[in-house]
């Protein structure tokens, strides 16, 4: 049986990204683009208060 990812809002994802040291580099429409210390880009679809859909989450 596989575990499902928790359902979270963009605000929670952003809070975690900033806590681990990722920095907002720019925003394109409703997508916020962050980079971590290694230069890996992370795109967060930002719609205030809405839960990020399962297909948008990946580890």
Task: Give your account of this protein's structure.
The protein has 59 residues and is an alpha+beta fold. It has one domain: 2-Layer Sandwich (Metal Transport, Frataxin, Chain A). The chain contains one helix and three strands. A three-stranded antiparallel sheet has the order 1-2-3, covered by helices on one side. A hairpin with a 5-residue loop joins strand 2 and strand 3. The relative contact order is 0.27.
Write the layout of secondary structure elements.
Elements: H1 10-19, E1 23-28, E2 31-35, E3 41-45
Antiparallel strand pairs: 1-2, 2-3
Terminal CA distance: 18 Å
Give a short account of the largest sheet: 3 strands, antiparallel
- CATH level-3 fold name: Metal Transport, Frataxin, Chain A
Tally of DSSP helical segments: 1
What's this, in brief?
With 59 residues, the protein is an alpha+beta fold. The protein has one helix and three strands.
Q: Which features would summarize this protein structure in a list?
A:
59 residues, alpha+beta, Metal Transport, Frataxin, Chain A, three-stranded antiparallel β-sheet, 3 strands, globular
